[in-house]
Design brief:
- The protein is an all-alpha fold.
- It contains six helices and no strands.
- α4 packs antiparallel against α5.
- The relative contact order is 0.14.
Length: about 160
């Protein structure tokens, strides 16, 4: 039972670590940009022949989100540190408090969900700037990019 709870607790921490590492690579060029990195859609949007008005709306959305994102990143780091401290205290305690571990694991999962929802909302707002034809083209380009990335990942993993 303790092992199961430890795994449940470790999973959000691991996901949080991946999130933090991804934040540290913003602006990094290479596979991350082409295959799911923070700028993965950038090249696709360039291929869509956006109008000047659409480009301005995209730029405005990115700029309006910039300060909010910085604030959320700081809060996210502080929350991760606080969660790490709580986890350490629970792990070093004389007695294992399963309820406290479950509560911490739930909090950490909820924080991850909140970050994911915010990210999807921003992407939704950007995609809704597109015309129906551009959305169709976007889906096609996205599917092509995904197929390329899967091939790269398989090649890297030696499959």
């Amino acid at each position: 039972m303790k092992r199961s709870v430890a795994i449940v607790l470790a999973m959000p921490l691991m996901l949080g670590s991946v999130y933090a590492m991804a934040d540290n690579h913003k602006g990094h060029h290479g596979d991350r940009d082409d295959c799911g990195g923070p700028r993965a859609d950038h090249g696709i949007f360039r291929s869509l022949d956006l109008t000047d008005a659409q480009k301005e709306k995209m730029r405005s959305l990115r700029e309006s989100n910039r300060d909010t994102m910085r604030e959320q990143m700081m809060q996210g780091r502080e929350a991760m540190q606080a969660n790490h401290d709580k986890m350490q205290a629970l792990m070093l305690a004389d007695n294992f408090d399963e309820n406290a571990v479950r509560e911490l694991a739930k909090q950490m999962s909820d924080q991850q969900i909140d970050r994911r929802v915010a990210m999807m909302k921003k992407r939704h707002d950007m995609l809704n700037i597109l015309t129906p034809e551009q959305k169709t083209q976007y889906k096609k380009l996205q599917a092509e990019r995904q197929a390329e990335c899967m091939a790269k990942w398989k090649e890297k993993s030696g499959e």
